[in-house]
Specification:
445 residues; 40% helix; 20% strand; 15 helices; globular; alpha+beta
Amino acid sequence: MGRADATVGGGLGFDDLIGELRELAGAFPDKRTGRNTRFAMEDVVLAAFSVFWTQSPSFLAHQTAMQQARGQSNAKTLFAMTEIPSDNHIRNLIDYAPPEAVFPMFNRIEARLEAKGYLEPFRVLVDQLLIALDGTQYHSSETIHCEQCSVRQHRNGKVGYSHTVVTPVIVAPGHNHVLPLQPEFITPQDGHDKQDCEHAAAKRWMSRCAQHYRGRKVTLLGDDLYSRQPLCEAALEAGFSFLFVCKPTSHKTLYEWLDGLRRTGDVEQIQVTRRKGRRQEIDTYEFANHLPLRDGEAALEVNYCQLITTEASGKERYRNAFVTNHAITPDNVAELVAAGRARWKVENENNNTLKTQGYHLAHNFGHGKHHLATTLASLNLLAFLIHTVLDLDNAKYRAIRDALSSREMFFQHVQALTCYLCFESFEALLEFMMQALELSYFDTS
């Protein structure tokens, strides 16, 4: 997707983002013909999104009952729905809408974050933006499947069906937020006999997003799976830099070269002693430039760095190594390693959060026959992104989140309140929660 998709106009407020999503939803594919169009696609998409934003599977049922009893509902006041479609309407209609219909929202929000300066704290390594890539499975079954499922024949003769997605995330060392970007789903590809895989999906994401990030100084992070020559070359061709984990077991040639350079004293080494609580730790950095990533004349030339952390007694606490196209010097090796280590945030602070801290990514909200599972997953990721945006940009929202013990607790409060009370606006909901939690506005600075 090009920069044309990344509209900067508009704000980051909840109402602004809901309005933007409603506008985008109007362009979703609609399988209906003739007069069978009671519910607008805008209402269908926003209804599905509202379930993920509130993380309340029964949200729409409560709002339907509230609408019937009082003539008003939070579906209308908070999520701009004209009518509330049923669960069956939502599943049937979204099943025909591919996840790509949701993707422009990710680009538009990212562009607005950048315009307001929220991406500046994420920039490291002389103005590089770090994007970590990782695949995660969010559906597995021996019975439920669709045309977008990956299929695996088990040794016991049973067939397994699954959905996996590559979740790119903007990260930075020491930053407590991650910013999810448009995903790439691992699905059967037209014209390909082999099963799709994380490698191929990552390449598609790089190709699809190349124009969007061209000239914006982006470094991709990934685990050892990504430090293979075809993926590194794909990243460079798309205009990205890379900083990938590199293990000895999968890069025999590179480590043979390193052993030779160590024997001749051509691998540079730096030691830093520091205290961690009562314990003294020693960080040993080593690096070398211009090494072959694999065997053969066509091998890509990469630069290598490693960090080994030990206690004063010699006990090893941490070891990891990376390859990159960035030139490595004594001045930047520690920052490069810190950037490489930020890769774990895509697992812990993104995928793990989505699965275990209230977003229920692995729950079957509806599988469908075509795109339902992937499009609903995209809306769930979008809900996580918008929650993050509000945490960055809305002081009242941030104060409420800080006052509650977890994301799940926040969702529980929102679910209970919107079940019994109708709020005239999102701001009214925040004000009610601020007062109930006895939070002063001045505490939100």
